[in-house]
Amino acid sequence: MTTTVMTADTHDETVTDGIVLIDFWADWCGPCKNFAPVFEAASEQHSDITFAKVDTEDQRELAGSYGITSIPTLVAYRDGIPMFSQAGALPAPALENLIEQLRGVDMDVVRKEYAEQVAAYKAQQALEAEGENA
CA angle, corner 103, sides to 73 and 13, nearest 5? Predict the structure, then answer.
C-alpha cells in the first residue's frame, strides 16, 4: 500500500480500524522531505497498515487539533486509539521498531485503560463545570 492523503473530512474514518501511521509534514520542511522516502518505503512493506500524510499547510485545522508545533510529527493509532506521537524524522529501523511494538500491543488492556482515562477526563470536566456554575 502506498500513502494516502488525510484531511479533516477523512480523519475519523481513517483512524478507526487497524494500525494507522500519520505523517504531519509541509513542503518547505527539509526533515519532512528526508523522512518521506522512509515513510513511503514502510508503506510498501506493510500493506496491512494505513500510512496517511497530512500537509500541515493545507490542513491547518487538523494539524492544530493535534497540537502540531514541529514537523515532521508521526502519530500512530491502533483500532481508533491514539498510541504514539513524536516530532522528528525517524530513521527506518526506528519506524520498523515502532510498527513491531504497535503490532505486539495487547489491545484488550489498552481499551480498558483508555476507557478509564476517558471516564476520568469526563468526570473532571463535569466537576469543573459544576464549580463554574456554583
Answer: 60
* Rounded distance between C-alpha atoms, residue 36 and residue 47, angstroms: 17
32 noted as active-site residue: yes
- CA 128 – CA 92 distance, rounded (Å): 44
Instruction: Please check whether residue 62 lies inside any domain of the structure.
Output: yes
**Contact criterion met (CB below 8 Å) for 77 and 83:** yes
Residue 125, C-beta contacts closer than 8 angstroms, at least 6 positions apart: none
* Tally of structural domains, the chain: 1
Q: Which of 6, 21, 29, 63 is catalytic?
A: 29
CA 61 distance to own-chain centroid: 15
Is residue 133 pLDDT above 90, yes or no? Answer: no
- 22, 32, 74, 89: which is the annotated catalytic residue? 32
Which residue type does 4 have? Answer: T
Q: pTM for the whole thing?
A: 0.88
CATH, residue 49: 3.40.30.10
Q: Give the type of residue at 10.
A: T
Q: What grid cell was written down for 64?
A: 492544530
Does 86 score more than 90 pLDDT?
A: yes
